[in-house]
Amino acid sequence: MLEGAAALAVLGGGGARVARGQAARDVPRELARLVAANRILANEGVVDAFGHVSVRDPRNRDRFWLSRSRSPALVELDDLMEFALDGTAIDARGRTPYGERMIHAAVYAARADVQSVVHHHAYGVLPFTITAEPLRPVVHTASVIGAEIPVWDIRTKFGGTDMLVRSIEQGSDLAATLADNTCVLIRGHGAVVAGASVERAVLTAIYLQVNANVLLQALPLGAPEPLSAEEIARSAEAQFSPLALDRSWEYFCQRAGVDPA
Amino acid sequence: MLEGAAALAVLGGGGARVARGQAARDVPRELARLVAANRILANEGVVDAFGHVSVRDPRNRDRFWLSRSRSPALVELDDLMEFALDGTAIDARGRTPYGERMIHAAVYAARADVQSVVHHHAYGVLPFTITAEPLRPVVHTASVIGAEIPVWDIRTKFGGTDMLVRSIEQGSDLAATLADNTCVLIRGHGAVVAGASVERAVLTAIYLQVNANVLLQALPLGAPEPLSAEEIARSAEAQFSPLALDRSWEYFCQRAGVDPA
Amino acid sequence: MLEGAAALAVLGGGGARVARGQAARDVPRELARLVAANRILANEGVVDAFGHVSVRDPRNRDRFWLSRSRSPALVELDDLMEFALDGTAIDARGRTPYGERMIHAAVYAARADVQSVVHHHAYGVLPFTITAEPLRPVVHTASVIGAEIPVWDIRTKFGGTDMLVRSIEQGSDLAATLADNTCVLIRGHGAVVAGASVERAVLTAIYLQVNANVLLQALPLGAPEPLSAEEIARSAEAQFSPLALDRSWEYFCQRAGVDPA
Amino acid sequence: MLEGAAALAVLGGGGARVARGQAARDVPRELARLVAANRILANEGVVDAFGHVSVRDPRNRDRFWLSRSRSPALVELDDLMEFALDGTAIDARGRTPYGERMIHAAVYAARADVQSVVHHHAYGVLPFTITAEPLRPVVHTASVIGAEIPVWDIRTKFGGTDMLVRSIEQGSDLAATLADNTCVLIRGHGAVVAGASVERAVLTAIYLQVNANVLLQALPLGAPEPLSAEEIARSAEAQFSPLALDRSWEYFCQRAGVDPA
């Protein structure tokens, strides 16, 4: 658990701004945010026993941080491991990494704009990975998921597997399907969310699930009206403004019992 | 958090009557109720990171109170800001207001009978903002939502936007669609609920969601039988009688961990 | 809250048998059970701000006990009031009764076998009060709800009302529709559950909701297979055997944080 | 509740491996795991007042352990009873066994590979016991439920009953329908899950429910794409590898407030 005193000093009260996007961040604070991200995603039901979230090293763009193999609800600072962009652990110290760390490695390698990656199996999102129904933003808070969410099927290139993204080749193929989008679904498995910061990736993952749940309830009522391309672009910008992003990050931190880092 | 001793003195035990409607109320108690309203709406899942609730100043009908930009679950007395009916903050003291405070300003300006306004994105309500299925009261506890709930689409008059109600013109247009009703839905966004008191607005917002969820489950079973106009009018009166209103306000306060103010 | 020491002495450990059905019971313990029943129904989401549960007086079959007007989650021993079978309070001591106490009065008057009555608006049950889809037992734990669940519509005899059962005439008409069944639905309003003991009425109300929720999920999958009449009768007997009833009463008490009385 | 010190010594920290499958295990630790299993299944909503979980004795393959008749949420070490494979209690000490212990007895007798059995009525699974819709794995975490899940109907051989599996003949008939599969559904009643260890049985029961819930939400969207036979087999192996099994067991123990035994 993060220590409150230091974190609150950083925040300077209740409504502090958090640094965002490409801005330089110091490593200890970024790792504290990564622990918070784990706890938030668990607390919101985006991840359960499985799923993980990583952050690119703020000083070294060829490295990223990810917990050892542990459920996000339980992740602590000491669980965080550093990885190269081929998925090699820098200093494992006997800790076992996740089997699917290649998802993160491949997305960072392919996308210079991405600072954080979430992989999850949110239950509300899963129906869209096994049916032809497209997952599209229908409510403004979910505009951040983007206009297009492609679906990747490991079977297409790799045949009958255990469904896990185990190799850098599989990760790269997934990243190629993600392309310039923010989210990609994985058939019968889950999703990957890419963000320009830990906070953005976490909030996108949360509202991807909210949007999926709204859509699941709306579809039996008739064809849902989608947001227009312009609405998606403008609303996403508003949702990632400090006004909205700081508010929601503080909220989700409070619910998860972690201090905003 | 409200201090228990003072609040309980006001209540005089468990079954106290709370002042209602247009009756004069003193400001400190009204603001304590507004804090309670924030916590209740968060606790019942009507609002999440986003959404807000306001109250008209009991001494000055041209002013209203609303939290600074903060998630309702976290709002405290010091967060409450006073606004004029054009949305100008009276004494901001460095606090940042919500981007959508114009919703509140415009409804108070248009509707002399309204003392409290809730804006929210309750997940169960959202499907009715993106489909043609009308949201109508089907259970008696939800009669307070009223017989007609219009849907407002910002795109109709303002084209491609970030979906937020940012200007007093947009707010006024929304208020014109609300007209004399209690609730209005906003396409792809959420809802606005108007009440003759904080308690009424909060309870209406809660039972709007209950009614929406019941309807979502009933629709696949066949055409739901609506309440008649007479049933809606009479039942709403019963739901806002002291017998029902005091009981439910005490209940929702207890669930949210706040003292009835 | 019930005091643990006395209640546990009664229980004699973890697996005690509770008296059931028509057996004579002493009043203090029966009232403690009635408080527990209120808390359990609230904790399981069968009741919310509204709904109530009563018990016939074990010494005087022409009297019943019911809380003053208060949400079940908050009911304490001092809230319990005694009523005659015409709904008159015996010793109100300034306490305000529920507006719908006539439901209880009328059912006790009509049904000598009934010792406890629950009235509720469980959200999962409500869709069956506004559509033509019948609510029938489809899983064995819900066999106790009985083979037939009629639907009563206050409009049929009493026209446009506030939907509440306010008079003994309305209550009697509802009881006539209930007839010899265990449950009756009320159009656009909720349900009434009758039981041969507090424990039976509570468990029936809980599993009525479970069965409704299962049915809501099953109906889109195709026509659900109902239990046969013989299965319902035999399974209900098994569910109300000490083996099943004691186990579930202990369980629901523990979840609600009350001692089995 | 398990005592933390001893259990943590066994674990040796946060990421310990738990013994699996057919490996010899000592009895006290196995019974501690059985208590944990009860609490986990209750905490995840797989069981409610009803349902039970057993383990074969690690030293004597003709014996198994199961709680006395008590809801899983409340089970403690002293509640565990030893049974022969005909369902006879070895040393009852006045404790009352579950009426359906024959389910466990019969599965252990029929299946030498099974070390643990769960019987439950998970609400999400029940719709598949009363409709023709087959329950098949559609997400990789649920691959462990197996490619085929037969449905057993007690009525076929035993006519009109109370729906409970009371005799060894009924249990054996159920076990014959289970055959070599991992799960079997029981019409209008619930399911039985067999596992090569307590951890496997528990996780299979949890993800059976997850898969059922995903399928319930996906079916209205169109025909869900199932996992291929090869994907099921390979993914199940991955889900039961130490990497995944240890992680999820630690997670579900933490959520249930028990120490991994």
Description:
Four copies of one chain form a homotetramer. Chain A is of the alpha+beta class and 261 residues long. Chain A is built from nine helices and seven strands, in the order ααβββαβαβααββααα. Chain A has a seven-stranded mixed β-sheet with strand order 3-2-1-4-7-6-5, with helices on both faces. In chain A, strand 1 (52-56) and strand 2 form a beta hairpin. Chain A is globular and about 55 Å long. Chains in contact: A-B, A-D, B-C, C-D. At the B-C interface, helix 7, helix 8 and helix 9 of B face helix 4 of C.
Q: What features would you highlight for this structure?
A:
homotetramer, 261 residues, alpha+beta, seven-stranded mixed β-sheet, 12% strand, globular
Give me the number of helical elements of chain A: 9
The strand order across the widest sheet of chain A is 3-2-1-4-7-6-5
* N/C terminus separation of chain A: 11 Å
Shape of chain A: globular
How much helix, percentage-wise, in residues of chain A? 25-40%
Largest sheet, strands/sense/barrel of chain A: 7 strands, mixed
Low-confidence spans of chain A: 1-22
Oligomer: homotetramer
Largest interface: B-C, 36 and 37 residues
Query: Averaged pLDDT of chain A, please?
Result: 92
Count the strands of chain A? Answer: 7
Structural class of chain A: alpha+beta
Give the ordered list of helices and strands of chain A. HHEEEHEHEHHEEHHH
Give the C-alpha Rg of chain A.
Answer: 17 Å
Strand content of chain A: 5-15%
